[in-house]
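WARN  no MSA supplied for this record, continuing single-sequence
INFO  ligand: GDL
INFO  echoing inputs
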Amino acid sequence: MSKPASAEGQARAPRGAKRFISGVVEGFYGRPWTMEQRTELFKREQKWGLNTYLYAPKDDYKHRMYWRDLYSAEESVQLIALISAAKQHDVDFIYAISPGLDITFSNPKEVAALKRKLDQVKQFGCSSFSLLFDDIEADMCPADKRAFSSFAHAQVAITNAVYQHLGDPETFLFCPTDYCAAFCTPSVSQSSYLHTVGEKLLPGIDVLWTGPKVVSHKISVESIDEVSSVLKRAPVIWDNIHANDYDPQRIYLGPFKDRPTELIGKLGGVLTNPNCEFHLNFVAVHTLATWCKATADGAQRDVEKKGDEEQDPCYSPQEALTLALTDWLQEFQSSDQPGGRCRPPAGLKKESSGEEPMQTDVGEGSYVPGAGENPLYTAEPLTLADLKLLSDIFHLPYEYGPTARTMLRELDWLKRHGWAVAAETDVTAEWRSRAQRFDGLCEAVVQMFNRLSNAPNRRILYDLYDYICDIKSGVGLARAYVKTLGGQGGAQPMTDDPEPWGFRGGLSGEFQRMLPCHGNRDLFRHPPTTAVYSIRPHRAEDTLEVQRISRELQSAGEGKALLMMQPPLIGDGLSSGEISPSPQCALVLEDEMGVCGYALALIDAKPAATKIQRAVSESVLKDFPSLVTVQVLPRVTDPAPAKRMIGQLLSSVRSSGSRGVFCELRQSDRRMLDFFSKLSSFKPVPTAGLPRDVVAVGTSL
Ligand code: GDL
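INFO  complex generated
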């Protein structure tokens, strides 16, 4: 398996008389690839042992929207050249057409138009064809309803007619409208649409299938057995695992994965519909090629690994990825532009090596800085580790690579344990060391960005640029946030009025942040609640209930015996009723069983602090002159009502003119610590003189 890909790899057990179809479908929405890029693809496919290219660019006028129009003389020349380039590289060029947006199946003129168009392409030297009916309205027009008993019958009739008209081509693909299990009603095995296709479509026609979903996480052998028995043929997978046309922030540089190689004997083939950016498909296509050759090379694989049930005995995505990235690194290093330049990395200066380093273009008249002048900017060359990191960050639709997962996990931990920084406990040292490690991981991303920017192959860089720029600023924000949590001054503050580059923009982004299923969906993950809560001003008769809740939660945290030994909090006086909250600064939360939470505030915290002999520094009181105390019973599993209650309280405190509030929390009160850590506006307040087990968090108003 670790053999480099080669043309011999094309040998694949025949399916009857047919060979296993393997390669690429240019089937995404958006800017189609250029003729040069496609020719480049054919070269690669040949080199790596893939045999097919399916021409199906959704936004190419004459492929879909204007499918009836014949190609102009100029376009014909281009297509003829492309088809012949594919032949030269032993790649089967399949021409696909998508008439489904507006065809009237029952009109003979429409059928004739379709045949005329495909006849034209046949004259260009193309001998393989495809009819696609994906992403169209499933409703038939009245004329078609009269002529056909179902949509499937209409599609099959026209497909069979065209297939026969073209002389039963060796390769002819049909893409159904229900092209994945998720689209089948009520299920694959009971889909009347698929059954009609299976029964009526001529046997020489192959059917495209994307798996359980449009973008399938896994494709199991069982799922393919099921659909094959309905279709009465082995499907050809149109794989959207690397497709990124549905989200401008994603790019997939992870390996072909989660398709057991056992499928190879059960499929008509696999075509990957990859990233829109041509140059970013090196890994997608290379690893697919490795997968397709898996059985041949599999016998040579490490036997030890066969014991592991999770592992495919013939294909390791990790090994395939390393092979692909190693080859891709070479590609990055080759200058794609005449006169392209890359400065020698530091330490590889002319004088030291005695000869011109490769890929430097220090032409005549190049500037050589003199003594005492600025040295020329140099950047380290890109490394395999950089590409590994890049692929970890931009991995696969359902999975990040190991380093990206570590970064997410660490940031989550640092955020959840932010309280530990001010508390100076055992966790504090761990927090600091993990924060430092996180910073190191972020720095590696920045260095990767710098080295990528210096790569001689600018075409790859330009396709990548938006993505790496985006992650660089994302990492910058996360880094600044961790520094702020750590109380490190000088870190770029997370201000309330950030520059446009300080947050992800766009109206679509705004909408998503407002919708319940997006953004912080993982933060407050609780079962949906049907309870109705009300927030109302605290009344004198609530005092006993508030006292009870406060006592109950304190004893729950420490156990009754230890209760007496707990250090007092400034807010205890408020919840016990010894100190009255400031006017308009007391709220209770109620559900159908009664009072279940409270939020109380003192505009001026100083007298209450003095009362329990707590020394709060003047500088803290200057920024956070007010105090809040909040508690909510555990039966309130939804954090939203408590968030709303504290929001209302803070707005009253703000309208009294206060600059900020703080809140003391016992370390045993994990629920409230967790609650405040998720209110992103509250940060640890470094207050000297707090009892050992007490932390303070605060927010500016
Ligand atoms: C689809 C489209 C495809 C698109 C992909 C990913 C098929 C058969 N059709 O549904 O053109 O690129 O999703 O967005 O997959």
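The two ends are 61 Å apart (CA to CA).
INFO  checksum written, moving to next record
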